[in-house]
């Protein structure tokens, strides 16, 4: 029998970023005993790193804005592959979620007349991102944590125990989900510091584990993004969708090498920054695709006027959706018009006064000064694409966030569908709040429906989870996980990166098979007390599964759309838009299967929000309204 500590909850939320915290608040407010488990320190999630802001059609900076325009922008940005019901709920509910944050204590930047300020971002028709300088994620997390503390204080008054109904287990990694028949029964994990095992008995688990960026070499993501939630869901029998769509953010730092990939927020362009090649040309005007031509300026003069008068001018092409800008930068560098360190120039210094730059973009100023010794108020930055976000994730039911497994929910970056083939900047923070809340409510409702009939955990399943976690200690003389991780990252970057081809993806798949063999034989040194090699060994299994999903789906989708660019299939294909690629684990749990599934056609009243001429760019002839 495995030695472990054991806790019983109604709902276990895995992840303490924006999605996890909002989900936990909801579940607790609906009367459910809730645990939050996170593998990093409490407060240190990706959400904290979010800079630019949270998209919500509040209409504060331009009163023409409304949820319908936000919906249209989101579908357009995702190239119509989005789950339209998720995009609808998101656009409708985001403003309420932002206002609600104010009731929790958030302090957003203000407009001159005292409303929540909203800034421009790529693909958004109107200034729409509620923000706090360029540190919005920090405020979001601070506020949600504050709300959690206030709920714990209420519980203390009622029960004498702060943690009676809502408790945080930080630096605790979940390695397996447990099931009773076809329903979730709990989660198994270990304390990172001691290596001791921990078990949560719970009929509902909400995955809020974020993304997968650590499978790629150049990424804006931190060590936590190893695709754990994606892989946990698959091992529990759930499905993933849209895994071929990886967002390469156009502007990561390219120099010095130690900081390559760190994000340069899109706010720099939203606030007036422009992209130039080594010849000093504002090259984005050459890269406006036909589907966006009507909405983007054709001259520098018109683009510059837009910053002051957005109603009477078209947007600068620097603010095209991220996939378009990333591909354009890639082409400029490949054509030999890049900067000395292989990027392009992002210049805000010649566009705004120094004081305004340091006021609006304080983090960027410090980031470049401290990490690259570049003063962005006086000289341009060098930037290039970096793996940033995964659009793919757990396939969920839009209204409740439930996966295909009973009792398993997913919200935030780990969930798929909402962003289609490409996410608009700012739409993640709002996604976390909207679907975090919905997942918390969905899980609470499910637990309520169970009454006394809760799924049970079998002792044999606990022993199996423990054996799987300890497997890397059992072998001697194998490779260490660090070498395999580096090679995996390099392969994904080079062969399934921003521009893809069938023969390269096939090479990647062959390498992944080889990695699977090597991972089965890897060894870790030492013992279970804080042992980063062991932690990486466990994370590597997840990264491998996720990488297989990305590569297999990328090979199957023979078109280019959003965050999936095939050199050998350069155009968008309307027949492919009707198809989702669904990943699951094969019978023995050892390899990924990808199958095609039909998209549910968009509801008629939502179709009517678009001009027929625009729909014709995305839909097949038969799908077009008469
Ligand atoms: P996270 O906030 O990453 O939280 C994941 C949590 O899961 C963490 O607590 C982690 O410890 C935990 N976890 C993971 N695996 C396990 C496990 N096995 N066991 C236990 N716990 C686990 N989006 C915007 O909308 N606007 C922006 O301005 C913006 N700027 C960004 C800037 C940067 C630098 C980056 C990297 C991203 C940015 N994004 C932005 C994207 C956005 O921040 C993320 O998509 C979002 O924060 C993800 O939130 P989440 O709650 O899904 O996951």
From TrEMBL:
According to its UniProt record, which residues of this chain constitute the active site?
322 (proton acceptor)
Gene Ontology MF terms in the entry: steroid dehydrogenase activity, acting on the CH-CH group of donors
Q: What InterPro entries is this protein classified in?
A: FAD-dep_OxRdtase_2_FAD-bd, FAD/NAD-bd_sf, Fum_R/Succ_DH_flav-like_C_sf, Fum_Rdtase/Succ_DH_flav-like_C, SdhA/FrdA/AprA, Succ_DH/fumarate_Rdtase_cat_sf
Which intervals hold domain Fumarate reductase/succinate dehydrogenase flavoprotein-like C-terminal? 485-588
Which key words tag this protein in UniProt? FAD, Flavoprotein, Oxidoreductase
Q: Which residues cross the membrane?
A: none
Pfam families, alphabetized? FAD_binding_2, Succ_DH_flav_C
SUPFAM superfamilies in alphabetical order: FAD/NAD(P)-binding domain, Succinate dehydrogenase/fumarate reductase flavoprotein C-terminal domain, Succinate dehydrogenase/fumarate reductase flavoprotein, catalytic domain
Specify the FAD-dependent oxidoreductase 2 FAD-binding domain's residue ranges: 10-429
Q: Which cofactor does it need?
A: FAD
- Protein name listed in UniProt: Fumarate reductase/succinate dehydrogenase flavoprotein subunit
> What is the organism field in this record?
Kribbella antibiotica
> What broad taxonomic lineage does this protein's source fall under?
Bacteria, Bacillati, Actinomycetota, Actinomycetes, Propionibacteriales
